[in-house]
Design goal:
By secondary structure, the protein is α+β, with helices and mostly antiparallel strands. It is built from four helices and eight strands; from the N terminus they run H-E-E-H-H-H-E-E-E-E-E-E.
Length: 264
């Protein structure tokens, strides 16, 4: 019996101790979902494939970091420093990148649906193949950015429609239906042929009123701009953006899409 016990102890002594598994740490910071990494210094860190869903990265230093394939969905990246960062095929859906510094960052193939890049610096960034459905670029710097659609660039440089169009739309909507219909059909064909923006105040008469997944608004309107592309099957293509106006006067982009043949 004693020999068997000694043999068992000998065998156990040769088995290496296995450290308990836990979330990885980089530069002393725990990398995990909902992590509080505000102002953390992760410059040039390898965070490829990291799970940072809903993490707080407000003001974090991530310049040159490898975040390829990382899950940053819903993360707070306001004011974060991401210059030159590798964000290829990363999930940034719903992330807040307001005022973030992304000059030279590689966002190719990334999921940017619902992300907010308001006033962000995207100078020289690569967005080739990125999904920008409902992404906000209001006031963003997009000089020399690659892969951005003309629609997104237009939203960044001119997020609000010209006030003259807004006024004319309001005036037209107050006129009687017959004159409004006649003038709108004439004006739309004239504006389209001149490739000018066509603003349509749709009010709250849409299905669902002024409510949408993005919130509730006191008014809604759309802008329609010829894209310059013409399809042999459906005719001219138009970039359409639908906006909502909040009770405090803010204009929020609800959705954007491409219409063919004519403006909606």
């Amino acid at each position: 019996m004693r020999k068997q016990l000694l043999l068992l102890l000998l065998l156990l002594s040769t088995v290496p101790l296995v450290a308990a598994c836990g979330p990885p740490k980089v530069n002393g910071y725990t990398i995990e979902r909902f992590a509080n990494l505000g102002l953390a210094d992760l410059t040039n860190a390898d965070l490829s494939g990291a799970d940072l869903e809903w993490a707080n990265l407000n003001g974090a230093k991530l310049s040159g970091a490898n975040l390829a394939g990382a899950d940053l969905s819903g993360a707070d990246l306001t004011g974060a420093h991401l210059a030159g960062a590798d964000l290829r095929i990363a999930d940034l859906s719903g992330a807040d990148l307001t005022g973030a510094h992304l000059a030279g960052a590689d966002l190719s193939g990334a999921d940017l649906t619902g992300a907010d890049f308001t006033n962000a610096n995207l100078t020289g960034a690569n967005l080739t193949g990125a999904d920008t459905w409902t992404t906000r670029f209001t006031g963003a710097k997009v000089t020399d950015a690659v892969g951005m659609s003309a629609l997104d660039i237009s939203a960044a440089k001119n997020p609000r429609p010209p006030s003259s169009l807004n006024n004319s739309s309001s005036n037209n909507s107050s006129s009687n239906n017959s004159s409004s219909n006649n003038s709108s059909s004439n004006n739309s064909s004239s504006n389209n042929s001149k490739a000018n923006d066509l603003l349509k105040n749709v009010g709250c008469g849409l299905t669902g009123g002024c409510s949408s997944n993005s919130g509730t608004y006191v008014n809604r309107y759309t802008t329609c701009t010829p894209s310059g592309l013409v399809s042999s099957f459906s005719g001219t293509q138009y970039n359409v953006r639908e906006y909502g106006v909040t009770s405090d006067g803010r204009e929020v982009l609800i959705r954007s899409y491409v219409a063919t043949g004519s403006c909606p």
